[in-house]
Amino acid sequence: MLSVMTVAELRECVRRWRAQSNSIALVPTMGNLHAGHIQLVRHARAIADRVVVSVFVNPMQFGKNEDYARYPVTHERDRSALVEADADLLFMPAVDEVYREGVEQVTQVVVPGINSILEGEFRPAHFDGVTTVVAKLFNMVQADVAVFGEKDFQQLLIIRRMVEDLDMPVAIEAVATVREHDGLAMSSRNSYLSAGERALAPQLYQTLLDVRDLILQGDHDLAGIEQAGMMQLREAGFEPQYVSIRCSADLSIPASRHDRLVVLAAAMLGSTHLIDNITVSTG
Question: Could you read off the pLDDT of 91-102 as tens digits, one per residue?
Answer without folding.
Answer: 999 999 999 999
